[in-house]
Fold this sequence. Notes:
Layout: H1 2-12, E1 20-24, E2 32-38, E3 46-51, H2 59-79, E4 101-103, E5 107-113, H3 127-143, H4 162-175, H5 178-183, H6 185-193, H7 195-207, E6 213-215, E7 224-226, E8 232-235, E9 242-244, H8 246-257, H9 275-289, H10 295-300, H11 304-321, H12 334-351, H13 353-366
Antiparallel strand pairs: 1-2, 2-3, 3-5, 4-5, 6-9, 7-8
Helix pairs in contact: 3-8, 3-9, 4-11, 7-11, 8-11, 9-13, 11-12
Bound molecules: 2-acetamido-2-deoxy-1-O-phosphono-alpha-D-glucopyranose and magnesium ion.
Amino acid sequence: MMEQLIEELLKSYGLDPATMEVRPMGQGHIHDTYLVEHRDDPGPPLMLQKMNNYVFRDIPVLMRNMELVSEHIAFKNRRAGKDPARNGILLLEAEGGKSYIGNDESGYWRMFWFIEDQKSYEIAENEKIAFEGGKAIAHFQSMLTDLDPLKIGDTIPEFHQLDARVQQLKQAIENAPADRLGKAGPMIGLAEKHLAPVAALYEASREGDVPVRITHNDTKFNNILFGQDDTVTCMIDLDTVMKGYAWFDFADALRTCASRATEEETDMHRVGFNIDIYRAFAKGYLSEAHVFLTADEKALLHAAPLAFTYIQAIRFLADYLNGDVYYKTSREDQNLTRTENQFTLMRSILDQQEEMKKIIAELSAELQC
Ligand code: GN1
Ligand code: MG
């Protein structure tokens, strides 16, 4: 059944199934991904992906964004003399010039050029990697500064809206079974206790000169592809590219790369925020972003990692209370432990806020911006 479907899909892309090898790539949490290789000739490998239309309800909007953004980046790469298929996510055209194919029955499918010999990091192992990561996030945003944000649709509505996330948590508390609610008590307490500085950042963004841009919105550090020499190739996972504040991407990358342990760490003594990695990342980010960021945007950067660590904590907490329906789990209470991990990280960030603010001021002065 599946084999037949895959053969049909390959044909739709003008490929001869008899000469191709298709294997599951099993890494992503959201979509189903397959590596497609030519059996005998050295043609470039491809990536076939079945999109998750439960998480992404509006596939046409998702793919319209993807076409616009990937083509825009490809244009910039070509102009810089770089091969667009090796320096960005690039879609193949299916029959009729379409960027995806399928229906509710077969699912919705797309195909990319696969970029070989790449690696990614869960956390930044050293300052050089953090610096390169920071530069990559700024470069991604900078390539999209001349694309009209109004052309980009919402693939997941209210994805980074604090009010919506707080509302989802309230709803989850109301509907939670007694045992989970009991166990989550201390974490619910922390959610209430730490909301204020996060709300203040959103408020300052609404009031200040903080433009709505096109942002990546899922800059978890492992969504940055590094070549073997540890220079960055490109950002991947473009499904959540939507309108947002520049600090969203700065925040989520630091939440992940500057933590001393991943968000799966269960020993809370190992969780903490590494200020040296923060400095190196911020230096890389500002080295490219200082030309397009407003003064208000720069002034909010130091508070950004705190806000996204909080939001990730309450997203895990709401999912725990809802019975683990969104994030995959393999252990009991995993989403509750993830919540505790994120609140532990947040505590460490809070303790270093003043130092973080100073670093941005120093870097801005160095760049004379
Ligand atoms: C999900 O798919 P992945 O692992 O890159 C989530 C992010 C969360 C992250 C936490 C579409 O990202 O928002 O920060 O998990 N993506 C979606 O691990 O919800
Ligand atoms: Mg993702």
